[in-house]
Amino acid sequence: MAGYPVPARRHRVAQEVRRSRFIATVARATDPEAALDFVQTVREEFPDASHHCHAFRAGGPEDSSRIGMSDAGEPKGTAGRPMLTVLLHAGVGDIAVVVTRYFGGTKLGTGGLVRAYGGAVQAALESLPTVPYQPATRCRLTLDYARLDPVARWLREHGGAVLESGFGARVDLTLSLPVTEETVFREMLADLGEHDPALTVLAREPSTP
Predict the structure, then answer these.
(1) Sign of dihedral through CA atoms 128, 43, 35, 119?
(2) 32 DSSP assignment
């Protein structure tokens, strides 16, 4: 899995459409639970709002396995779906957005709601600060002391890191390395004479950059 941009921080943009106020709040969410927690936080921030509609994609820009949306009381298909459609074409991963609406007294109709909710998300994305994120593999490696320096040097040059280390008869390392570099790392270990099961994968899970 290649790297991708993610929201750098919580970001907010407000728009007014025919006296209704639409406040789009965007944040990073690495899983559906985090996305729903974020939705609840926004609800608590604006307890008197008419609606809190949301959409999220937990995963990379090519991953649609963990998505979600809600119209939150608006007519079906007028809020969550257009919001999610904008997110799915944004090229940003691990992202959740809540659009908070304060009703201004004028009904917008279904088409107007679709444009207003989708437009609110689009406006927020246009100014959203992002940072690059590289999914990582967390693994454990046991090796001889003589091979510690070349392994540490390889990790520095390829975006990896030593998370924990233990020193006994051999060196025990807990490592983080980019998912895209895992195969190359195994080839490098083989060249050094370190073969599986010296390397044990613990997890391939996104973590905060």
Answers:
(1) negative
(2) H
DSSP letter for each residue of 184-208? HHHHHHHHHT--TTSEEEEE-----
SS (H, E, C) 105-168: CCCCHHHHHHHHHHHHHHHHHHCCCEEEECCEEEEEEEECHHHHHHHHHHHHHCCCEEEEEEEC
Residue in this structure with the two tokens 């659009």, named with its chain if needed: 99
- Kindly give the confidence (pLDDT) of every residue in the chain, 209 residues in length, as a single tens digit, with 9 standing for 90 and above: 567 899 999 999 999 999 999 999 999 998 999 999 999 999 999 999 999 999 999 988 888 899 999 999 999 999 999 999 999 999 999 999 999 999 999 999 999 999 999 999 999 999 999 998 878 888 888 888 888 899 988 988 888 888 899 999 989 999 888 877 888 888 888 888 755 446 676 555 544 43
pTM for the model stands at 0.73
Domains, in order of start, for the chain: 4-132 (3.30.230.30), 134-203 (3.30.70.2750)
Residue 126 contacts residue 91 (beta carbons within 8 Å): no
